[in-house]
Amino acid sequence: MSWDIFKQNIKRAVDNPDSISNIDSVADLYATEYDNAIRRGRDSLNLVSIQQGNIESMRETFRISLRLGSNTKSPTFQLINEFGKGIISYWIGATLQLIPIPIIPAPGSLQNISVITNVVTFPGTWPPSPPLSAQNNTSTFLDIFVSTATTHLQTVSGVVNTISLYPAFPVSVPAPGVLPWSGYVV
């Protein structure tokens, strides 16, 4: 559903050339819509959404990619693969929300009682896209982008640093815990 909103918003703008003034506006559009789609998603394990991605780095990488694409005549240039570099930069240093508290306890603990940090430790791997000829069909590009982005999100991972309760006698003791997670779903 969220990727459908992403595609509809991009297509609506791209199919109205008067709304696109330059390459920067296209980069801004893709970066904003990607960020919005990710904000509607959750990590696969704890169902926690993103708090902050590096949208500025992604936007700048998209701008560079679009300029490179408009200035190259190389048949090997693939805009989707260049956009992948921007997506990776978005996830570098990204953080997830501190709530909800993960239900699965940190290893060795009985229960998580709070989250200190929830950080992306691996920004994932962007799978190479198959060759796509230059075309005016926005839908084909968007379908391949979404498919590739969905595959990429399966490779994003991080850790939740918690305060958790550990078994002790006579009462449980709070102490730091680390809970790894992998995968993000939109």
Short description:
This protein is of the alpha+beta class and 186 residues long. The protein has five helices and seven strands, in the order H-H-E-E-H-H-E-E-H-E-E-E.
Question: What are the main properties of this structure?
Answer:
186 residues; alpha+beta; 3-stranded antiparallel β-sheet; two-stranded antiparallel ribbon; 7 strands; 41% helix; 22% strand
Description:
By secondary structure, the protein is of the alpha+beta class. The chain has one domain (2-185). Helix content is 41%, strand content 22%. The protein is built from five helices and seven strands. A three-stranded antiparallel β-sheet has the order 4-5-6, with no helix packed on it. The chain has a two-stranded antiparallel ribbon with strand order 1-7. Strands 2-3 form a two-stranded antiparallel sheet. The longest helix is centred in the N-terminal third of the chain and has 17 residues, at 23-39. The radius of gyration is 20 Å and the shape is elongated. The model has no long low-confidence stretch (mean pLDDT 92).
